[in-house]
Amino acid sequence: xxxxxxxIKPFKLDEVRxxxxxxxxxxxxxxxxKGFGRQKGHTELYRGAEYVVxxxxxxxxxAAVRTDQVEQVIEAIEKSASTGKIxxxxxxxxxxxxxxxxxxxxxxxxxL
Amino acid sequence: MxxxxxxxxxxxxxxxxxxxxxxxxTVAPAATAVAAPTGMSGMAGxxxxxxxxxxxxxxxAPAPVVNKGDNAWIMVCAALVILMSIPGLALFYGxxxxxxxxxxxxxxxxxxxxxxxxxxxxxxxSAAFTEGNAFFGVLDKLFLKGVTPDSVGATFSKGVVISxxxxxxxxxxxxAITCGLIVGxxxxxxxFSAILVFxxxxxxxxxxxMAHMVWYWAGPDAYTDAAAAEAAGATAGFLFQKGALDFAGxxxxxxxxxxxxxxxxxxxxxxxxxxxxxxxxxSLTFTMIGASLLWFGWFGFNAGSALEASGGAALAMVxxxxxxxxxxxxxxxxxxxxKGKPSMLGAASGxxxxxxxxxxxxxxxxxxxxxxxxxLAGVVCLWGVNGLKKLLGADDSLDVFxxxxxxxxxxxxxxxxxxxxxxxxxxxxxxxxxKVGDFDMTTQVISQLWGVGTVIVWSGVxxxxxxxxxxxxxxLRVPADEEREGLDVTSHGETAYHH
Lengths: 112, 499
Known about the structure:
The complex is a heterodimer.
Chain A: E1 2-8, H1 13-22, E2 29-35, E3 42-46, E4 49-53, E5 56-65, H2 70-81, E6 89-95
Antiparallel strand pairs in A: 1-5, 1-6, 2-5, 3-4
Chain B: H1 2-26, H2 68-96, H3 102-128, E1 152-154, E2 161-163, H4 164-182, H5 192-215, H6 226-233, H7 238-241, H8 250-268, H9 284-303, H10 311-339, H11 344-358, H12 367-385, H13 387-392, H14 400-418, E3 429-430, E4 435-436, H15 441-473, H16 480-485, H17 487-492
Antiparallel strand pairs in B: 1-2, 3-4
């Protein structure tokens, strides 16, 4: 099993969710986060006072998927989250040791 | 706890000591009284009530009957002015601070509103709006003694009166918002108890005398002939006698509060981390709502200052509407040109600048005059919060001086220009001749400068002394670690938002 984490632009969340549902991903966890990458921050101006905003708002999506699904998942996120402009985000993939469904006690692929 | 006792002692000393001094001074001859330059025609924007109560009317003449339309209008306007403080000003300011200080600002404005309300009926109204010397009234109406539902007060028309109680609440709402305005200058670091004690002192020694100086007069009915006008004029406030025009409070409210704010910003000191820590506004949505409520309430503030539901009130209302729109646009366009983007905060700030600048002029200038005042206010106040702010070097957190001080001074001077009938203004009414008097712009502008200069010096001196006193007794600032954590939790034990 693999654990996929993607940092994306907030307004792309709905498209990404639809793309993942379409390829059979059963569940995702979404968190509003802040951070910076190559996009860096931007400056805001309030009555002449300039503030550099280092951390930009992003959305973090986490999904646990079967190993055979992972390429498809990566492709789906890549396509749906892309605008072609700097700041589109990143996808991180980890090995996942174990998953347990709390209600039934199922484990592994069964629990996904 | 020892601070609380010190605080109570100070409040007591000020509340009962200062008016007593005012009372003593009333027995002295009004040495500073001088004749107004344009005869006794100086309509200063608001009429004082003393001498206009029913029992003071000549025995032979029938007691004037309250005009119910005017009365209804003034009561509605009083409620509108209260809406400006809470929630208008509170939200306007609240949105501009960091989220950890939101409640502290709301609390300061809310509490000051309540505090000044109480002080107003206890001694404020009496000390401001009774016949005393040129600077203070007397304490005859302490606790509103003798002010009954039958008491009446003058308007700007002979023989037309309103309920004195309606005037009491209308004027009380002005006093409350004036004190509330000041807190923006030292938001995010001042100690709550220090603010409250300062307000008691400043209200007593700066707001009350300024209101008396600018607005107190015997009312139009006293101006029957030249001799009577001279006698009545000698009882009016200092700046009223100088002929300074202030329709709804450019000097009394805005410059007065702005100077106190600026002095406070210097004496409280800069916010910890200024320049290193981001101090961007936490919710311009609230700021926009607040600015809009201020605009709405300001119709009561300015148009209500006509004290009658008259054509003059309608003129003030239209000017309040138009000048504000002009200032919102001119600030926005200036920002767009010089800073790259038209901002919501810019538009909202411009609107408030326009409201401030049109306040002294509202019932005196024509609509074209209002347009020019508004357009200038937006641009000049934008400079006030940028170039001038850097020159002054004070951390006036929410730009009380840049907007209320600069806009107030601009409006006060331009009132003297655009009141000119040749420029579409109303001119200055001569209550002896019962017509608009001859107008001389130079004389009028000099009168306006008297108003501006007096309020700057008076409020400046009172503020320096008051802040110093409070600093010695309880300290002006919260400790730096409390400031970093935010005043909501450390001063008030609650948070505005639960994330």
